[in-house]
Design a protein that fits this description.
Helix content: 10-25%
Strand content: 25-35%
Number of strands: 10
CATH class: Alpha Beta
Radius of gyration: 17 Å
Number of helices: 4
CATH architecture: Alpha-Beta Complex
CATH topology: tt1808, chain A
CATH superfamily: tt1808, chain A
Strand order of the largest sheet: 3-4-5-6-7-8
Largest sheet: 6 strands, mixed
Length: 187
């Protein structure tokens, strides 16, 4: 008889205690290293750039890239997710934690699907973000040059090249053309 292999259930606190712990997400107790392709990272950086411009135009808060994480999942209190881009207003979170993760849901989060990822995994994260209280979530899919929009009211839509993403009622006044988010089409 073979003894069952024990698997460890991780918490964000244990992950954070690792030497490079801020590189890891904890999803359903599983430790997952964040890995993005250059293209996905460039798209996420472009989105963060547009968010900073919008924030600097009079919307105080915190914009974070893929290293900023949140521990906002009461059904799995040991989990941490690190969206590729997020925004949390100064009203929701007046002070940004010096170390560690945010414990208040941001208004907005985005996941950029990397070639190492499955679209369904990003969609699962979007569902978790909405369940945790995030108001607007974008799943950015470079392979189809599309953005899947998730809203707190349960509605969803998909936008493609030639259409414009807006922050809707969540990020009032924010907009970016889908084409600008992805940049020029590769030759």
């Amino acid at each position: 008889m073979v003894a069952p292999i024990e698997t460890k259930t991780w918490t964000w606190q244990e992950a954070l205690a690792l030497p490079d712990g801020e590189r890891f997400e904890v999803i359903n107790g599983e430790l997952r290293e964040r890995r993005m392709s250059l293209r996905s990272a460039a798209i996420a950086t472009r989105l963060v750039h547009y968010l900073f411009r919008w924030m600097d135009a009079g919307h105080p808060g915190t914009v974070a890239g893929s290293d900023g994480g949140y521990t906002i999942f009461p059904w799995m209190p040991g989990d941490v997710r690190m969206p590729d881009a997020s925004y949390i207003s100064a009203d929701r979170m007046p002070e940004t934690p010096e170390r560690g993760w945010g414990s208040i849901p941001p208004e907005f989060a985005a996941e950029v699907v990397s070639p190492n990822d499955q679209v369904q995994d990003a969609e699962d994260k979007a569902e978790d973000y909405i369940r945790a209280g995030v108001d607007l979530v974008w799943v950015v899919v470079p392979s189809t040059r599309s953005v899947h929009v998730w809203r707190a009211d349960g509605t969803r839509s998909v936008l493609r090249d030639g259409e414009t993403l807006t922050g809707e009622a969540v990020l009032r006044g924010f907009e970016v053309a889908v084409t600008d988010l992805f940049g020029p089409r590769p030759n």
